[in-house]
Design a protein that fits this description.
146 residues, alpha+beta, OB fold (Dihydrolipoamide Acetyltransferase, E2P), single chain, 5-stranded mixed β-barrel
Length: 146
């Protein structure tokens, strides 16, 4: 006696994965849910054994994950790359205050635009000293003494 059809089980698994996607960051489970629904559709129309069902689920998971993830992320989440500079990014020449002493080659910390940043310098800078930003690379600011 069969409790439920394979198609209904795969459909339920897909719904569970969609619900779990809302609780887990990363936007990955959505594509496994899509694959479960594709497998459910195939199981409904064809009499597939469990091996074929799992194979279809695996191929559909990988296909939807790698084939659709970039497109769906851009559509629903947005493109993370920006054309213009961020307003907090240092252009060079701005003044900031050393909040944790910088002892080369070790990093210290500076306060710039109300935020604390990792910082390096060619010469030692003491806490509370005002310095000038030379450049910024990602989250690291290079400074020099006035």
């Amino acid at each position: 006696m069969e409790l439920a059809s394979p198609g209904l089980l795969w459909l339920s698994i897909g719904v569970i994965l969609f619900v779990m996607e809302m609780a887990v960051p990363g936007f990955i489970l959505f594509f496994f849910g899509v694959a479960a629904w594709i497998t459910a559709l195939g199981s409904y129309f064809f009499d597939w054994n469990i091996t074929v069902q799992l194979s279809v689920f695996l191929v559909a998971s990988l296909g939807s994950l790698f084939g659709l993830r970039g497109f769906v992320q851009k559509t629903f989440i947005g493109d993370s790359k920006e054309d213009g500079q961020d307003t907090i990014m240092a252009q060079g020449g701005e003044k900031c205050t050393v909040s944790v002493a910088i002892q080369p080659p070790a990093e210290g910390q500076v306060k710039f635009s109300g935020t604390f940043w990792r910082a390096t310098a060619e010469e030692a800078c003491e806490e509370g000293e005002v310095v000038i930003i030379e450049k910024q690379e990602d989250l690291l600011i290079t400074v020099k003494k006035l």
